Amino acid sequence: MFNFYSSRMVFFLWVFSWVFSWVNAAIRRYQAWKYLLYGREMIREKAAIAGDAPFSLPVFGFGGRMHIVSTAEHWDDLKKAHVGHLSMHYWVKEIFQPKYTLIDEWHDNRDEIGMPVVRAIRTITSRLFRHAPTIMRVFERELRVKIQAYPTSEDYYKVALADMAKWAMVKVNTLIILGEDTANDPEFITRGFAYTKEMSMIGEIVRIVPAFFAPIVASVVKKRNLNQRYVLDTMMRLVEKRRDATNGLTKEALPEAETILEALADQGPELSTREVVHHINIFWTTTTHSTGLVSVQFIKDIYTHTSLIPALLEEIEAAPSTPPTSTTANDCLMEGVLMESMRLHCFQSTAIHRKAISPFTFSDGYTIPAGQSVQFYQERVHLDENRYGQSTTFDPRRYKGSSRSVTDVGMEWPFWGAGRNACPGRFIFSYSVKIFASFLLKNYDCELPTPRKNWTWGENSIPDSRNLLLMRPKNVEKYHN
Predict the structure, then answer these.
(1) Which residues partner with 470 through β-bridges?
(2) How far apart are CA 442 and CA 481, in angstroms?
(3) Is the pLDDT of residue 476 over 60?
(4) Average pLDDT along the chain
(5) Which parts are annotated binding residues?
(6) Tens of pLDDT, residues 287-300
(7) Which superfamily does CATH assign the domain made up of 56-480 to?
(8) Is residue 68 within 8 Å of 377, Cβ to Cβ?
(9) In the chain, where the domains are located
(10) DSSP code string of 160-198
(11) What is the average pLDDT across 117-132?
């Protein structure tokens, strides 16, 4: 009798345990789906309840959980954390899913081998303003043609803002990273634009679907993968061309690098040709994707706050170069407008994204299990009334009298990361977005008649692709000759 009841008890406990685990898993999956649709608001709600305490939310990927921290102590812990414990590289891999999006897998020691890339970016950053005439010439010639392909209404072109801005960022980033000839290759721009879209789409879908379905999704989206192959083959030819031209030359005799690819290729045998292409591909794709999102929102904010346009135009016309050369918001209104756009409408509500390689414990005792992600809640900083009075008001002149800049690094401006892991491409990022805005302001009268609200995907705020920018050339005769 005892054995009979014991067996039944064990069986019922096993069934209960199985049902409980299944229900728990179903709830987590429901919450993860909910996060995809309402993640930004879910973070706000949890943060309001938690105060300064860390909290977490169920997500797809990242070990099923994302942890959010927000205090100065947490910031310092993230800043000091060794890459062997908290890795930005592994977090980016989880986002872009290179196993499915790229031809070659990303090396897992990239956190430690990034200095050649940083040096190459810094080399070209120091020469950045040399690119302005070329970029403006490209815009003058090709952006005009692209705009004229859109339908017209009462002398205005009805331009899809997101499509135009993202295309412009592909052009600018290609010119700075790969060179003018590649930026003038229409097939590269078309395929590169499509390639960045494919990467983003696959990365998002693969985290949601069962693992066995991921390769199928990737193959359906990429089809024959012609876009990526064209981009990588072009990069390979450029690296080989540079190395053939400089083979046998001493460092002092090397012709000055004009692009980030050339600067990286010049760094000697420590990087193979394939490794140079690998790093350039990562930088080009991630920069093009992020500048595209920021530029759309930046243009949207400029033409939403039209009272700022006369002062912006006056600033651009008075500046000795385009965009205005000042890098602080104290004496550059455009800098202040970009800062407010990123502060109030940043496409990510968090920053300093890391994946735990091993369990990581913060100084307050909060632990991130291995495989899960942690990030800093930058929206709380951006909307802190103690830092920004009337924090929800778009006011680019709030920075007057300060030395604040959109490229600042620190807890006051978390977007670029912390410490030695801060984004080295932030100056190129800022420059690309501002030169595009300067071109539009100088050459077109624009209206944004019915701005549509952004939509959310996880923590991301995405400008609606249906936003139309009405554009009319300021010098009509010039643009019709």
Answers:
(1) 158, 447
(2) 18
(3) no
(4) 88
(5) 423
(6) 999 999 999 999 99
(7) Cytochrome P450 (1.10.630.10)
(8) yes
(9) 56-480
(10) EHHHHHHHHHHHHHHHHHT-HHHHT-HHHHHHHHHHHHH
(11) 90
